[in-house]
């Protein structure tokens, strides 16, 4: 029996260059968030509780900006992710607005297709995402003047054209991506410097975290999003949540 155990992704250690670059990046982020809050008071920041979103949350709370912070509890979160909701609220003294799926729709989907339906086809996986992520997000954004994400260009090929400000045509509101130009090393340098609360799964080889059935650890050297919907082709690996 082989005793070989693969090495999994680890949180990148901040270099001296990362730390030197950070003050300028952090100042730019503060400026962007202040601009958003001045133009669109009560704009909604949709946090997935990923490290990128925690960096933004830390900045919003530190500056006491009038931006709403919401998150989704899909009903399929890892315990570590669910625990971060309470930890974030306690750390920053805020009440995160938590949105959940329509219970009847979620129950009906599993009754018809089974709890493992997401593995059967891309169509069923996307239907599950719609029930558990997109529909609750749409409710969270109803009436919002604008919204924010923690997306970055370098996360995946599908996000390479990301910009700071764009129009969400489907919802008819402005969408902001305030850390669109940050690199992975920048994110982790900020998190370490500011002691940002983080999902415990990052210490278990998970660089990108979604629902428990759809996320796995990533081996060293793999793309950081390789653990999301790993059974699908690269071209189908978006759920439309942040489009």
Written overview of the protein:
By secondary structure, the chain is an alpha/beta fold. Helix content is 38%, strand content 9%. It has helices at residues 16-39, 51-63, 79-92, 103-113, 122-141, 184-193, and strands spanning 44-47, 68-72, 97-99, 146-148, 165-168, 173-176. α3 links the parallel β2 (68-72) and β3. It starts with 15 loop residues before the first helix and ends in a 50-residue tail after the last helix. The model has no long low-confidence stretch (mean pLDDT 93).
Question: Which key phrases capture this entry?
Answer:
9% strand, alpha/beta, 38% helix, 243 residues, 6 helices, six-stranded mixed beta sheet
Structural class category: alpha/beta
Question: Can you write the helix and strand succession as a string?
Answer: HEHEHEHHEEEH
Oligomer: single chain
Number of helices: 6
Alpha carbon gyration radius:
18 Å
Number of strands: 6
User: Which spans of ≥5 residues are poorly predicted at pLDDT below 50?
Assistant: none
Q: How far apart, in Å, are the first and last alpha carbons?
A: 47 Å
Helix content: 25-40%
Neighbour order of strands in the largest sheet: 3-2-1-4-6-5
* Overall average pLDDT: 93
Largest sheet: 6 strands, mixed
Report the portion of residues in β strands. Answer: 5-15%
Shape: globular
Could you write a compact summary of the structure shown?
38% of the residues lie in helices and 9% in strands. The protein has helices at residues 16-39, 51-63, 79-92, 103-113, 122-141, 184-193, and strands spanning 44-47, 68-72, 97-99, 146-148, 165-168, 173-176. It has a 6-stranded mixed sheet with strand order 3-2-1-4-6-5.
């Amino acid at each position: 029996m082989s005793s070989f155990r693969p090495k999994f992704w680890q949180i990148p250690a901040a270099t001296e260059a990362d730390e030197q670059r950070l003050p300028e990046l952090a100042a730019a982020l503060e400026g962007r968030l202040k601009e958003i809050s001045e133009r669109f008071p009560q704009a909604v920041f949709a946090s997935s509780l990923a490290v990128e979103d925690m960096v933004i949350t830390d900045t919003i709370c530190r500056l006491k900006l009038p931006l709403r912070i919401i998150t989704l509890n899909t009903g399929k979160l890892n315990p570590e992710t669910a625990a971060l909701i309470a930890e974030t609220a306690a750390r920053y003294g805020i009440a995160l607005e938590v949105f959940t799926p329509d219970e009847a729709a979620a129950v009906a989907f599993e009754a018809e297709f089974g709890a493992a339906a997401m593995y059967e086809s891309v169509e069923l996986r996307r239907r599950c995402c719609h029930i558990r992520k997109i529909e609750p997000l749409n409710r969270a954004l109803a009436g919002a003047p604008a919204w924010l994400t923690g997306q970055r260009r370098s996360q995946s090929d599908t996000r390479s054209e990301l910009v700071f400000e764009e129009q969400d045509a489907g919802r008819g509101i402005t969408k902001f991506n305030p850390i669109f130009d940050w690199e992975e090393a920048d994110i982790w340098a900020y998190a370490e410097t500011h002691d940002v609360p983080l999902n415990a799964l990052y210490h278990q080889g998970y660089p990108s975290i979604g629902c428990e059935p759809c996320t796995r650890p990533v081996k060293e050297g793999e793309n950081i999003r390789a653990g999301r919907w790993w059974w699908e082709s690269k071209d189908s690996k978006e759920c439309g949540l942040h489009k």
